[in-house]
Amino acid sequence: MADKLHFSLVSPAKELFSGDVDHVIAPGSEGEFGVLVNHAPFMTTLKNGVVRVLEGDTVAMRLFVRGGFADVTPAGLTILAEEAVDLSKVDAAKVSEDLEAARSKLLSEGKDSPHQGALQAQIDYLTDLKAAVVH
Hints:
Blueprint: E1 5-10, E2 15-21, E3 23-28, E4 31-36, E5 42-46, E6 49-55, E7 58-65, E8 68-73, E9 76-81, E10 84-86, H1 92-109, H2 116-134
Parallel strand pairs: 1-9
Antiparallel strand pairs: 1-2, 3-4, 3-6, 5-8, 6-7, 7-10, 8-9
Helix pairs in contact: 1-2
């Protein structure tokens, strides 16, 4: 289909989506960007956030990515995410539970913990994911 954008979203665990769509909006590290068919080629890093896949003016799918890269070529858009989940399959209560557990662990280990950076990164990710699930 010449009027459709080929879009693939891949994480280390699996390919979450591959198909032809009308429009994709992604959370670039320099700001949100949209890609339509025949977009000029570019590559950028991604920040934690929601990738919206549109069919016409309707959001058909919302995927949450934890960082990664987006590559726009004449063949389409490929997102290589560090981690990605389909927001329609995320349990908000479980995300809240995991967030509280990570916060508790960070408090119990203290500021001098060798895990402080990793725990804070997990808290940041879960906070962003929780916000995406409720919106």
